[in-house]
Amino acid sequence: MRSVQTIFLLLDEGWVCIDGLFTFPVPMTAFSRYSYRSFCCLALWCGAVLLLSGCRSEIRLETPREVVDTANDLVLSYKIQEARDLLLNHEHLFPDAEPLRPDFQYILSLSLLHSIPPERGLIERAEVDMVDMAETYPDHPRAPAAWLYVGRMRDMRDYSGDEPRLPEAREAYERVLERYPDSVEAGEAAARLAITFMKRTEDQREDFAKGAELLAGWLDDNPDTEQASSLSLFLANIYDAHLGDYERAYHYYQVAENMGFNNQGNAGARYWRLLELARQLGHYEEAVAYGKTVIREYSRSGRAYEAKLLLEDIREERPEMEFTIPELKSFNELETE
Amino acid sequence: MMKRFNSNWIGLFLLVTAWGYSAVRFAGISSAQALEEDPDEGKKVVRILHWQLEPGYREGMQRIIDAYNNLPHVEEDRVEVRQMAVTERVYAQFLNVHLISGTAPDICEKGMSSILGSGAQLARFFEPISGYVQKPNHYNKPEYMPGGMSEDLLEALDPEGDRLPDAIDPELADYLETSAWSETFTDGMLGGWDDTLQDYIAVPVSSWGAMRTFYNIDLTADIKAFLEEEYDRRPRAGWLTRLIEEERMVPDNAPFESWVRTPDVPDSLGRFIVFCEATMQYREAKGVDKLVPISASSYFTGTMIGNYIVPFTNAIAEKLDVDHSSNISHEEIIGGWQTGLWSFDDPHLKDGFFDVSRWLAKYYPPGYLGLDREQAARRFIHSRAVFITTGGWDASTLFDGAEGKFEVGVIPAPVPIEGERWYPYSAGRQNEAESKLGAPMALNKESNHFDWAVDFLRFMTSFSANQVMNKEAGWIPSVVGAEPVEAMKPFIPRTEGVKPSMQVNLSNVRIVDHVYKGKFPLYQTGEISYEEFVNDVEESYRSDRNGVDRVWHETFVSNRDRARQLERSMVVSRLRGQLQGWDEENTVKHNNILEYSLTILDGHSTKAIFYKYFPDRTFPEY
């Protein structure tokens, strides 16, 4: 399966690196003039590359199941181009009547979408295949994900000159929410739908309030969804950073905190923001609790020292409140946290 | 008439020769590989590639490699670990070429390479290792611990008997034996974490240590004695009077006097400047022409000013954090400048940071920008400078170099204290609580001996091996409870101080940093005035082509590309959930990536900030 991969790389340092076994410096002065000899030289070089790339071996598999499984494994290993090539080489194994055709279309579409560099032709085909899969096999377990990806293809700018098609993207997200409301993808679809209103394009001004209202409504109806903490946090950030509605921001930060912050790596910064907002909104008892959490449990957030100073300020401002301020931990104490 | 020789033929000749040589080499090695699965006499060779050529590091690593190669189960399977040290000057090219050609070593130090970056590109070549790090490290079992290991292993690891304790605290031993591998690292293995992948992608084996200022203790004592004489002289030395009364560097009070009368190193920025000026006077008085207070160079840690960005810009940064992320982005910096949230007239900058930078530069060697890292170290080692600022990675070079000549002390960069000139503008020292471990070793996906490579990394980051390697190298170990050599203890990160990401680093704002970087040294050395410096920088900020508007555009593009990278990572985590079920680990990972992805709004978070500042302007396009 290992390909012959002798690579001639023109690196930006101005060296030519020859094969994978050693690095050989060649001054690029040979190409410094646009003489016909330089072009001959380049042509010779390109010929050699083409000759060697012709030696690349291809994976040949027999059954559709093998093809789909191998492609899935390649994508799971981030070898997306290899998966794409494999699938395109075995397309003949997946006629309309083939039971694995939707799986083939799904994984092919993803591998086309995420090939590097992104190309218009590949992405247009990715959308066609994904829509076809989602419409032809609406009960396939990956149909909700397929509609979500269709929305993303329309929503994102995937290649140079690609313009987001927000109304079409909304249609795709709404399909997920209407047809598959209990799917894993529903939460993300609700958030993506909200974001389509938060983007400013030639056709629309950004409307954070509308987007936030949509997502808040969906979260109220689906409070126990798997992504509720992440979505609440996102909503809190929208109210906090973009709408300046600190009451609501505080509320949704608290919702996320009550469910447990999904990303513990950032939790310290979230507790710091809760501390700041609680103080700003006059919730001093809560501010003290959040401050203590930053110092005790998120000493590595980089905000522990400032949380200590802020608690000292609160103690000065509100002498009637009696509370102790935890000591900062030394780095050695942090090690076994 | 003689025809002029065309130099293109030289290039062509070299290309053809190189191609021929390459083809022959390739054919030879390919056929050798085809004939024999392992070209090295049936051994399973595991190679580890790194760029740490600092004194002691290779020796430390080799010691534990030898110990590992002699372990009974390793010998039995004919496994042999070998290290490959490549200079950082060609490391990126070397690694890129070998990764693409599928011939990279089994374990590679992650970094330097621009094509790898993070996210899917990284995961294409290196194996994410979440599945491994949740299990305990079996090399932390009692038979590999001090007091429990075999004589052979002890002899291999610690032949002199000075690298390992006789026994370790039973509670620590129990913690290391039973905890997940990731929990046995002092940073919870964050040094190997990739945010875009939401996965561990490398194993950090050492700590580079925090930035510190090294000083020559002997010279310091001599200069302090000289300073005391100058202080006591009546009338008092003019230079000292000027620093105290005109420049207001330090208050003329009892604590200052008591500091003057000790051999102690300066413990505040004002006293540091007084000391540097005393060094200049000492040089003149004693005729030691080559002595300078601070050994500086063009190396990225080569001047002391990097220590003062956070203290003097923290207050401005707190005003600029419009997305409340506790991080200051490029768009927050330039948007703040465009809307007047900060300016170069801000006293934190003009009278704080930039004033400090100019004072410090008076005490660097002449032409310091033409000096490199080695030259700066040499100056310090030869007692031609009292101070040098660098990271823990240079500690062994400096300690070893000074051995037998003078004693070396280590301090954190001094900050202003109350009553000093710069105190009103300083937020105090930055903390180092978020310090991550370094020397991250990633596992090549194409490794023929992947499990052995993982096994060696487990050995390398076991308590005993990690302590031995890092003590030998003079670096800080990455394993909980492992002790560094005494000299490295000052490099253990400090938790007091403000958050380091809350800073306004103008030398780091893409596109518009060129003029700043070019003019800042000229301002520091007094070749241009502050007004000229600011005029030039602001003019570059206002440039239509490459000014701050371009920064908005480029930041948007970069965030948009990042959104696609995150999307790619989510494709993989979703597919894993669809094929293997949504276990807790994959769910958390997927939701973490989702959080990042949602927050940047496909790049439109940049536009949102722009329109917040400029509701009626058109977003810049290039």
Report on the architecture of this protein.
- The complex is a heterodimer of chains A (337) and B (622).
- Chain A is elongated.
- Helices cover 61% and strands 2% of the residues of chain A.
- Chain A is mainly alpha-helical and 337 residues long.
- In chain A, strands 1-2 form a two-stranded antiparallel ribbon.
- Chain A is built from 15 helices and 2 strands.
- Chain A has helices spanning 36-53, 64-76, 80-89, 101-113, 120-136, 143-155, 166-179, 185-198, 208-221, 228-243, 246-259, 264-280, 284-297, 304-317, 331-334, and strands at 8-10, 16-18.
- In chain A, α6 runs parallel beside α8.
- By secondary structure, chain B is of the alpha/beta class.
- Chain B contains 24 helices and 12 strands.
- Chain B has helices spanning 8-35, 57-69, 72-76, 88-101, 120-125, 130-133, 151-157, 170-178, 217-232, 238-246, 254-260, 269-286, 309-320, 330-338, 347-361, 373-381, 395-402, 450-460, 463-473, 513-524, 530-542, 548-580, 584-599, 604-613; strands spanning 44-50, 79-85, 107-109, 193-194, 199-200, 203-207, 212-216, 292-294, 385-390, 408-411, 438-443, 476-477.
- Chain B has a 6-stranded mixed sheet with strand order 2-1-3-11-6-12. Chain B has a 4-stranded mixed sheet with strand order 8-9-7-10.
- In chain B, β4 (193-194) and β5 (199-200) form a beta hairpin.
- In chain B, α2 (57-69) runs antiparallel to α19 (463-473) and α9 packs across α12 (269-286).
- Chain B is globular.
- The interface between A and B is large, with 100 and 93 residues.
